[in-house]
Design a protein that fits this description.
The chain is α+β, with helices and mostly antiparallel strands. Helix content is 27%, strand content 30%. It has a 4-stranded mixed beta sheet with strand order 1-6-4-5. A two-stranded antiparallel ribbon has the order 2-3.
């Protein structure tokens, strides 16, 4: 069984851990907010979901907003997927944020993910689309 859901807004990423002056670590506010948004989107789409026990496969499509100053011709290429984002955040940071957010919600632990595809696109509607299936 596969679960497909969408997270509205610009794709987030896993930020670097931050440290207080006393040496305690914490996760930055933007990362926490994005992970909470992913968790809420999943729970709204699949209420009462029991976490997968076995191996999982994950696909993540991150749709970034097209910069306002982009010429029309270039914008058309971006919308058609001929020009793809090469800006930050990196694919691995987007994936890490999504996988960490879904721990104990979609699956027991992200170590169960044995296969993953992450793609970055441009769109007029920024969002993150996630597909999870138990293998």
């Amino acid at each position: 069984m596969a679960v497909l859901f969408s997270v509205p807004g610009e794709p987030g990423h896993k930020g670097r851990p931050r440290f207080t002056r006393y040496g305690h670590t914490y996760t930055d506010k933007k990362t926490v907010e994005f992970e909470n948004l992913v968790r809420v989107a999943f729970e709204q789409h699949v209420p009462g979901h029991q976490p997968y026990e076995g191996q999982c496969r994950v696909e993540i499509d991150a749709y970034f907003p097209i910069p306002i100053s982009t010429p029309k011709k270039r914008k058309a290429f971006m919308m058609d997927g001929l020009i793809r984002p090469t800006k930050r955040p990196d694919c691995d940071n987007v994936a890490k944020a999504v996988l960490d957010a879904l721990n104990s919600v979609a699956y027991n632990d992200d170590k169960q993910v044995i296969e993953m595809v992450v793609r970055k696109w441009y769109s007029d509607v920024p969002r993150t689309i996630v597909m999870i299936e138990e293998v």
